[in-house]
Design a protein that fits this description.
Mean pLDDT of chain A: 76
Oligomer: heterodimer
Number of helices of chain B: 16
Order of helices and strands of chain A: HHEEEEHEEEEHEEHEE
Number of helices of chain A: 5
Number of strands of chain A: 12
Shape of chain B: rod-shaped
Low-confidence stretches of chain B: none
Low-confidence stretches of chain A: 1-44
Largest sheet of chain A: 7 strands, antiparallel
Helix content of chain A: 10-25%
Strand content of chain B: 15-25%
Largest interface: A-B, 32 and 36 residues
Shape of chain A: globular
Structural class of chain B: alpha+beta
Number of strands of chain B: 17
Radius of gyration of chain A: 18 Å
Radius of gyration of chain B: 73 Å
Distance between the termini of chain B: 80 Å
Strand order of the largest sheet of chain B: 2-1-5-4-3
Structural class of chain A: alpha+beta
């Protein structure tokens, strides 16, 4: 629950001015909300890292774009090839800050995609569980790159937020074994290597 | 009211809620286990709920066990019974539960392992390989055809190549042929259906592979049961001016039959893969769930065992506490009735018993009080009685005695209950003689009698006490020793009074009958003498003179005797006034000191003797008579000695002024000593025998006592005791 954003806003404005991405995206008429870059270390190959995340308004629709680095290694590859499906969730929340009460969650939405290996065609399938859209890749790396690239994902319309409020956007990416129930994941939290979480990546919503 | 009701029903409400929760959890688990989706949704909540239940139960069980242990160590009533029963209950609950638990664990492990046989995995892999082989043949054909087609159009111009696309599309059965130029620009396209250009952009992996001069062939799943075989080949032109490559991409639809079969194989493969991945978590989950169920059931069983053992034995514990209280004498104890079963009946019976015991004790106490009251009243009556009453057994052991009995027998019997009569010490031997007389009658087999007993006491000279006794055997109760009640009265004084009264009457009549003719006799004798003496001869004169003189002197003597009779017969009217007895003794003795006698008079007077309230004239007469008698007794005695002693003595609770008059004369004749105070009893030749009788009468009129005795050293002594500190009425 972030309530005092003046310092964060100052950092963001500085970063926004200096950021080439920000400048490039400013060619669009849409309002650029935020864009930050996080340092990626080589040691974080088994971690989920949100490299960049931004929110745009396009014709009154707020769209999230992000670049997420998911782990890709031989173990994952073997697991997929053994027939196990992995789910990749991207959860976005927009909350209105309240001074004397809990923050008011405006929107809480999840993009769930499932990565699996098609044994007959020997291709990696990425399926959006909401739309049913499916794409296939010949390599795990291509599939993971696809999973980590979010472009213009509509999450809400501008009518859902009021003008004078202070809002925070936060994003979290997670990976887990698809057919493991919540209870099993809770029970196996100390042994299950497949449950990973990027942690919340948050930034103020600038309109 | 509401709070009381809540407190009263709290255990039942809690037990009901608890049973509902446990049964609900187990039912939920059972239902969820039958439905995997439901299980997935509810499992977390079930696990959380069960874990919380286990923790709460564990705390409750530990708390109960601690209470039970402390009660056991402190030997609280019923705790041992509760502990034993609890242990038995726990064993009965735990053994089947643990058996089922370990059996279920083993069954689960074996059951889950049996799902993942090697043969199944191998079969699936073979199915995948088979499918792949079947498709690869077709794919290889398509790839070769695309490669051939690329070589054909490589020799043609761009326009001719475009024209060839439709021809190839028709002849090959492809669904779409796209020819890409430099920078992956679409040069020509031929399709069964008109497609969007953007949608047929060449995949990156295709471009990468063709760039390496290889033919690209791949099977791409598009949707459910919809597959594409995508092929690509580089158009190798000999006059290529730069490194930019051109290629052709041909797409074939996989026949539906192949697609469905491929889908089925893939679905089985994926499901098995997911299942294998769930193998350990499933086992772990089932073990955990089963353990939770076991813990919930076991702990609930243990808690229930302790609770129900406590509930079961609470009435027993209450009964033990109640019994202990009753044993300690608290009959007001009531054990609460907690149930209406046999235990409730037992508690009811106990309460009924204590109520009856309490009533019986109250009745006994009332009876005791009544007996005590009657005994007190009897004691008061006995104490007020002038008649002596004692209760003894056959062995003459004293049970009860009233104050008058002690007074009559000259001993304090107040604290002598339980002692033999012969062993009770008294001031004289009256009691022992009394006991001997009674013993003689008992020995003769006489248990009930009414007789007059004469007892004398220690001193041989003391006058005997005459008791009128009646002995009655008391009713015998429960074979106890036979007891006898002896009622006796001291009639000595009564008899003496009767005798004195008789003698007084005799004296009065004698005085009346004798005194009246004496004066005429005396007057007649004097007139004879006066008339005849002048006219008679000398010889007759002497005769008349002596005769009349004899008559006159004898009449005088008779008059004196009559006066003594009159004195003796006079009533007991006395005039009481305080006076100093010692002074009176000296005053009377002075009369005798003036006489010329050889008698040595020794006087020892107690200076502490207080004033005596009595009739001074009568007491003077007593002293005169005593001193006269003593001096007369000493007339023929050489070295005669008269001793007079006054002193203050206490007999029982009464103080007396005692005057002892002793002489060293011949003493009283032994045959007379018993009757020395009776009228007309005298050892003197010229005495009337009324002196000591009058003395005794005066002393008795003052409430005193008089004793006559012979001294061992010789002589006699008379003791007069006049009461002090008490005004005579």
């Amino acid at each position: 629950m972030i309530k005092n954003y003046w310092l964060l806003n100052l950092i963001w404005v500085t970063a926004n001015v200096l950021s080439p991405i920000s400048m490039a995206q400013s060619t669009e008429k849409n309002i650029e909300s935020n864009m930050t870059t996080s340092a990626i270390s080589a040691a974080s190959v088994n971690k989920i890292i949100v490299e960049t995340a931004a929110i745009n308004v396009n014709n009154g629709v707020y769209q999230v774009s992000a670049k997420i680095q998911y782990p890709k290694n031989e173990e994952i590859n073997n697991t997929l090839r053994d027939g196990v499906s992995l789910a990749y969730d991207i959860h976005v929340e927009v909350a209105e800050a309240k001074n004397y009460w809990f923050d008011n969650t405006v929107i809480s939405i999840t993009l769930r995609r499932v990565l699996s290996f098609h044994a007959v065609s020997e291709r990696y399938l990425v399926k959006d569980t909401t739309t049913g859209d499916q794409t296939s890749y010949s390599s795990l790396e291509d599939a993971v790159v696809f999973l980590g690239k979010i472009e213009a994902w509509p999450i809400m319309v501008s009518a859902q937020i009021s003008e004078p409020g202070e809002y925070t956007v936060r994003l979290r990416a997670s990976q887990y074994r698809r057919h493991l129930t919540g209870a099993l994941r809770a029970l196996l939290f100390w042994t299950n290597n497949w449950s990973r979480d990027s942690g919340w990546y948050s930034w103020p919503l600038i309109r | 009211m509401a709070v009381d009701t809540l407190t009263r029903y709290k255990p039942k409400v809690l037990a009901t809620i608890w049973i509902a929760v446990v049964v609900g959890s187990l039912l939920s688990l059972s239902l969820s286990a039958q439905n995997s989706n439901q299980f997935s949704r509810l499992q977390l909540w079930f696990l959380i709920g069960s874990s919380v239940a286990v923790l709460i139960l564990l705390v409750l069980v530990l708390r109960k066990a601690r209470q039970l242990l402390i009660a056991y160590q402190n030997n609280v009533s019923g705790s041992k019974l509760t502990a034993r029963t609890t242990g038995a209950f726990i064993i009965l609950v735990a053994l089947p539960l643990l058996t089922v638990y370990f059996f279920s664990l083993s069954f689960l492990n074996r059951g889950i392992d049996s799902w993942f046989k090697v043969e199944i995995k191998q079969g699936l892999n073979d199915a995948v390989k088979l499918s792949r082989s079947a498709l690869e043949l077709r794919m290889r054909e398509y790839g070769l055809r695309t490669e051939t087609f690329a070589q054909q159009i490589a020799r043609l111009s761009t326009a001719e190549s475009i024209l060839k696309l439709d021809e190839e599309l028709r002849s090959s059965g492809a669904s779409e042929i796209v020819m890409y130029g430099e920078h992956q620009q679409i040069i020509g396209i031929s399709s069964v259906t008109m497609s969007d250009v953007k949608s047929i952009r060449a995949p990156e992996d295709l471009v990468r592979q063709i760039s390496g001069s290889n033919t690209y062939v791949s099977l791409e799943p598009i949707k459910d049961s919809l597959y594409l075989i995508r092929t690509g080949a580089q158009i190798k032109s000999s006059d290529a001016r730069n490194n930019a490559i051109r290629f052709v991409m041909v797409t074939y639809d996989l026949p539906r039959q192949f697609a469905e079969l491929t889908d089925a194989v893939q679905r089985s493969y994926s499901q098995y893969g997911d299942l294998v991945a769930l193998r350990e978590p499933l086992k772990y989950s089932f073990r955990f769930t089963l353990t939770l169920v076991l813990l919930v059931t076991l702990l609930a069983g243990i808690y229930g065992a302790i609770y129900f053992a406590e509930v079961l034995f609470r009435p027993v514990r209450n009964l033990m506490i109640g019994t202990r209280a009753v044993a300690d004498g608290d009959l007001s104890t009531k054990v609460p009735v907690t149930s209406k079963d046999e235990m409730g009946f037992l508690v009811d019976s106990f309460n009924d018993m204590t109520t009856r015991l309490s009533q019986a004790r109250a009745e006994t106490e009332r009876s005791q009080k009544a007996v005590e009251r009657e005994r007190t009243q009897l004691a008061i009556i006995l104490a007020r009685l002038s008649t002596g009453v004692i209760t003894i057994d056959r062995n003459l052991v004293l049970q009860i005695a009233n104050e008058a009995a002690g007074s009559i027998l000259g001993v304090d019997l107040g604290k002598s209950a339980g002692h033999f009569l012969s062993q009770i010490s008294g001031s004289d031997d009256l009691l022992h003689q009394f006991a001997q007389d009674i013993s003689q009658r008992f020995s003769a087999g006489r248990e009930e009698w009414r007789e007059q007993i004469e007892i004398r006491g220690d001193a041989a000279s003391a006058s005997p006490r005459i008791l009128v006794c009646a002995c009655v055997a008391l009713p015998q109760v429960n074979k106890e020793k036979k007891h006898y009640v002896i009622v006796f009265d001291d009639v000595t004084n009564l008899l003496h009074a009767q005798r004195d009264a008789a003698w007084g009457e005799v004296a009065r009549r004698l005085a009346h009958e004798i005194k009246n003719p004496l004066t005429p006799i005396q007057l007649s004798a004097e007139r004879i003498r006066r008339r005849l003496l002048p006219n008679l001869s000398a010889s007759d004169t002497d005769l008349v003179e002596r005769s009349t003189q004899t008559i006159i002197s004898q009449v005088e003597s008779l008059k004196k005797m009559v006066d003594d009779f009159t004195e003796y017969a006079r009533g007991s009217l006395i005039e009481v006034s305080p006076f100093n007895l010692n002074a009176l003794v000296n005053e009377v003795l002075d009369l005798y000191r003036t006489q010329e006698t050889a008698i040595v008079i020794q006087v020892i007077l107690d200076p502490g003797l207080e004033m005596l309230h009595a009739d001074q004239g009568r007491v003077r007469q007593v002293l005169n008579n005593l001193f006269t008698n003593a001096i007369e007794a000493l007339e023929t005695v050489k070295a005669a000695r008269l001793e007079v002693i006054s002193e203050r003595i206490q007999v029982r609770k009464q103080y007396f002024a005692q005057i002892s008059v002793s002489d060293n004369g011949l003493g009283f004749p032994l045959e007379m000593i018993e009757h020395i105070f009776d009228p007309y009893v005298t050892s003197k030749s010229r005495g009337t025998g009324l002196g000591l009788a009058i003395v005794k009468k005066i002393v008795s009129d003052h409430g005193g006592h008089i004793y006559a005795e012979n001294l061992i050293s010789g002589g006699a002594r008379i003791r007069v005791m006049l009461p002090l500190s008490e005004r005579l009425s």
